[in-house]
Amino acid sequence: IDALRRSSARRITAVMPYFGYARQDRKSAPRTPISAKLVANLITVAGANRVLTMNLHAPQVHGFFSVPVDHLTALGVLADHFREQDLTNSVVVSPDLGNAKDATQFSRLLGLPVAAGSKRRLGDDKVVIDSIVGDVEGKRAIVLDDEIATGGSIVELLEKLSEFGVTEAAVACTPGL
């Protein structure tokens, strides 16, 4: 961005398919940085006039930028993939209630019911899913997650779904780290 600005570019759009700091969008403990805001400021100060990104971890990250942000989603592309399959007796499942809004939108695109895991985070790399909210017994689960870093939540969810009688599962995610 700096090189473009110094070369007298009239407009600069930062295209970031993955904004790596989006999960650091709030203070999780005292004296911890809100890195998403810091990096947003860096991109703007460097000279970007606009930002184009996909699947931000949380909608509030838009507000960290002082330039327009075009936030694209992959839900339509993922839905197109699953529409090519037999969706009889399927349900969309969110690993946690925080992603339930996207899962609900995805389920509407597919014309399917939605369910969600009730997740508690015990540490950075350890989660427990206590139960499943919604009817999943005897169904095929299409799990929609917003970001997979270690896979711990997905493994935990798939084990819980198995306990709740899910017969088959597919996982859809963007971005998959």
Structural commentary:
It is a single chain. With 177 residues, this protein is of the alpha/beta class. Helix content is 28%, strand content 27%. It has 5 helices and 8 strands; from the N terminus they run αβαββαβαβββαβ. A hairpin with a 2-residue loop joins strand 5 (114-123) and strand 6 (126-133). Helix 3 packs across helix 4 (100-110). It is globular, with a radius of gyration of 19 Å. The chain starts with a helix and ends with a strand. The mean pLDDT is 88.
Question: What are the key terms here?
Answer:
177 residues, five-stranded mixed beta sheet, three-stranded parallel beta sheet, 28% helix, 27% strand
Largest sheet: 5 strands, mixed
Relative helix content: 25-40%
Structural class: alpha/beta
Strand arrangement across the biggest beta sheet: 6-5-4-7-8
Order of helices and strands: HEHEEHEHEEEHE
In angstroms, what is the radius of gyration?
19 Å
Tally of alpha and pi helices: 5
Strand segment count: 8
Beta-strand percentage range:
25-35%
The overall pLDDT, averaged over residues, is: 88
**Distance between the terminal alpha carbons, to the nearest Å?**
25 Å
Low-pLDDT residue spans: none
Shape: globular
Please render the helix and strand layout as text:
Elements (H helix, E strand, L loop, with lengths): L1 H5 L6 E4 L18 H12 L3 E5 L14 E4 L2 H9 L6 E5 L5 H11 L3 E10 L2 E8 L6 E6 L6 H12 L4 E6 L4
Parallel strand pairs: 1-2, 2-3, 4-5, 4-7, 7-8
Antiparallel strand pairs: 5-6
Helix pairs in contact: 3-4
Compose a concise summary of this entry.
The protein has 177 residues and is α/β, with parallel strands linked by helices. It has helices spanning 2-6, 35-46, 75-83, 100-110, 152-163, and strands spanning 13-16, 50-54, 69-72, 90-94, 114-123, 126-133, 140-145, 168-173.
